[in-house]
Fold this protein.
Amino acid sequence: MTSLAALIRRDIKIALRVGGGALIGVLFFLTVVVLMPFAVGPDLALLARLGPAILWLGALLASLLTLDRLFMADHEDGSLDLIVMSRTPLELACAAKALAHWLAAGLPLIIATPVLGLLLNLDAASTSAVALTLLAGTPALTFTGMIGAALAVTLHRGGLLLAVLVLPLSIPVLIFGVAASQAAISGPLSFGAPFSILCALSLVSFVIGPLAAAASLRHGLD
Amino acid sequence: MSFGPYATFIVTSYLLVTVVVLMLIAWIAIDYRRQKQHLRELDASGVLRRSGRSAAEVQ
Amino acid sequence: MAWIDYRFDADQLSLRRNETKQAALPAATAAIITDAMTLIDLANPTRFLTLTSRLLPWLAALTAILLLIGLYQSAVAPDDYQQGATVKIMFIHVPNAWLSMFVWGVMSLAALGTLVWRHPLADVAAKAAAPIGAAFTFLALVTGSLWGRPMWGTYWEWDARLTSVLILFLMYLGLIALWRAVEDPSRAARAAAILTLVGAINLPIIKFSVDWWNTLHQPASVMRLGGPTLDRAFLVPLLVMAVAFSLLFVTLHLAAMRNEILRRRVRALQMMQARQRPA
């Protein structure tokens, strides 16, 4: 187990360094959220209604952006080959990398949400609801996104292809994430139902993500 | 045989389906001809398949 | 690179088949073994090409006949009491919608063939099916949209079914993009196989979640499409068209598989030629 812990620690350290990509994700999140009022208009009531959706969309796009470097940096310097060839099962190694990626890139997004909620005229209760759904949903985004990252790792200009492959897989997470936030803020519907489905999607992705990513890496790196 | 007030929609749908299906058939047929042409050229330049059979022989 | 010729293996197989016939086996077991041998024979690309070239004219003729019958039946079908003549769009919309999902199923089986059994023709089947499936999905979307304008008053509705089919279309395009992005066909096949299987798991999830989302954001006016049971006057043309379109898919798919086998043969020969060329 220490090899996995070492892998996680290494990935987090690299991600947090300058140019590592963790904090640039938060910056992108901020940029997207700031762009929305320019497109939608400064009507505060409208922004408050759209708030959960804008935050979720921003988080989705920001995590998509940082997914690129999940395997790419390792592939470029050869450490991906070492990870594939090591004795640790590749599925666990992929899960460890995804966990590290979520800790370094996903958590900062969730921490940034309250601040961005202010920009969108969301009150404290709404923002916490959105943050909670992001907490439950961003692992699903990372783990399913990992599949696309593994498929695209051996392609030189794989970035856009990665986005095209990952987005349809992320749509259910987006739907239930926003539904849960809306239910907590305003809806007559219960928060529990969409939230538990969101958690279920995350749990399922913990299994399918590493399996599919490991298979892709094994087949793709021959 | 009147198609009612929405005749244009009905006719457009059927026409579109016909056009797309014909395009599929055309693309597959043209691709077939192009591959056979490539194989003929390779045969003419003397490349042999591993079994020793000629490249242009499709069957 | 065992693409180019299976002749040696095929001869070995026919030797084995004769031995099996002579052995004292119960008839059923012998039949099963012979059937299995036939499947393995089909795995031989050359045999497949021969079989396809012989089958295709018949399949094409049968498809054309059924399509013409279906078209005639659709033209003379009565008007629906609610939808009027626009019910005729259903006869081409529903088969395309059904096929768009069926083709993903065929690709998923082919993906299993690639990853689990390493069947040599599985790659070819998967790659050939993708553009055809994408075309059917596109037609389902467009005919649905043209059907929707008279029905709902709008060309597009974020209704659960349309949205799921739109996402399916995006997944087809992503799959085709992945096929074209990797140079080596067998590596592309394995990556595409994984994506196809992940997509197959995800399609029910998408359908369920989009259904949920649509129930949450119920549109202002929802019209029920048709009655719960389809009258025989509509059912017969629909079934004929469904069978005709399925045969169309089989014909196009076999022809496209033939093209793909020839394309790989060309690629292999070009590489051999490049090696033989003097420096």
Summary: The longest helix of chain B spans residues 7-44. The interface with chain C takes residues 1-7, 9-10, 12-14, 16-17, 20-21, 24-25, 28-29, 31-32, 35-36, 38-39, 42, 45, 47, 49-51, 53, 55, 58-59 of chain B (CB under 8 Å). Residues 36 and 58 of chain B are 8 Å apart (CA to CA). Helices of chain B lie at 7-44.
